[in-house]
Design brief:
2 strands, 11 helices, mainly alpha, 344 residues
Length: 344
């Protein structure tokens, strides 16, 4: 790797990880502000103007809180589980293209940290690791509620991961590539969500599965307070507790980014941004469009939490295995048929 390429990679790591962490932190404020708006309350409004410094105050509070480990807990796994829960979302950042490639002096600089040809496979691998942090955290806590939450999470994530991955394979069938940059470039100017019916159905399946994969309402049975006190994180405190939630909100950011890349053309806007000639303006405009789409889905994650009631466990399993998985397989078969016959 040349010095210029190394510097470019380090800059991308700093910028894109910084954006992800910042969005995750700000999402905790948006969660409370939007819930207050829906319930006609004020929400946090004491720390900083309009309460905008509340995430910073929460972070400082977690840093200075006492760390407590329950008696009988597996100390190694108890400490390791929060990091394992947060790491997959951070790792996925590496393959997400945040904007259009930067063209400088004929050199193409992709706006993903690792613009690899197996980016989708990397995302699938990281997604399959996400369950281990929650499952091990629940088991290592030596608490029956935590154990039940971990078991629920593992069953739920495995169930919905199948339908999600089949919907992603449908996108690969349409794009003909596993590189995420090429996937969004193949959607200029027609986004995959508008490729009816296969793209539209795949989008719906991926969106529902994204809620389940991030343990968000109405699929938050792994941590529902009415049944399991707090679920897998019942015994956690201080920064270990904060890491679980940082992982959850970072996963929301990454799922929003992947939905945007797979189905909404990534940084493209019906071909408008793609036509900009100045490379720097094109990159910045694409980044703005990408983040606007991501913020829309973050709002959707939060809005659904405070609007739709939680599923029962049997309803959750029925939806995943008997509805979404067969529908995703049938949709994939239809997409393959349409591509093979030249219709798409």
């Amino acid at each position: 790797m040349t010095t210029a390429a190394l510097i470019a990679t380090l800059v991308k790591i700093a910028v894109f990880f910084g954006i992800t962490i910042s969005l995750a932190a700000v999402s905790t404020l948006f969660e409370r502000k939007i819930s207050a708006w829906i319930q006609q309350r004020y929400g946090p409004n004491r720390v900083g103007p309009w309460g905008v410094l509340q995430p910073l105050a929460d972070g400082l509070k977690f840093i200075f809180k006492e760390e407590v480990a329950p008696a009988g807990a597996n100390r190694l796994l108890f400490r390791l589980a929060p990091a394992m829960a947060a790491a997959p979302a951070f790792m996925t950042v590496a393959v997400v293209p945040f904007t259009f490639p930067l063209i400088l002096d004929g050199t193409r600089i992709p706006m993903a940290i690792a613009d690899i040809d197996i980016g989708v496979l990397f995302f699938m691998a990281m997604g399959s690791l996400a369950v281990y942090g929650i499952m091990l955290g629940g088991w290592a806590s030596n608490n029956k509620y935590s154990l039940l939450g971990g078991l629920r999470s593992s069953a739920q994530m495995i169930s919905y991961e199948l339908a999600m991955m089949v919907s992603v394979i449908t996108v690969l069938t349409l794009a003909g590539s596993m590189n995420l940059t090429r996937i969004f470039e193949a959607q200029i100017p027609l986004w995959n969500i508008a490729v009816f019916p296969v793209g539209t159905i795949a989008f719906g399946i991926f969106l529902i599965a994204a809620f389940a994969e991030t343990n968000r309402h109405p699929f938050d049975l792994a941590e529902c307070e009415t049944e399991l006190v707090g679920g897998f994180h019942t015994e956690y405190s201080s920064m270990k507790f904060a890491l679980f939630f940082l992982g959850e909100y970072s996963a929301m950011v990454m799922m929003s980014g992947l939905i945007t890349t797979f189905f909404l053309g990534g940084p493209s806007l019906f071909g408008l941004v793609n036509g900009i000639e100045d490379p720097w303006i094109k990159v910045l405009a694409g980044l703005g469009v990408f983040l606007a789409k991501v913020c829309f889905f973050l709002f959707l994650f939060i809005w659904v939490r405070w609007t739709i009631p939680r599923f029962r466990w049997d309803q959750l399993m029925h939806l995943g295995w008997k509805l979404l998985l067969p529908l995703s397989l049938a949709n994939l078969l239809l997409a393959g048929t349409l591509v093979a016959t030249g219709v798409l």
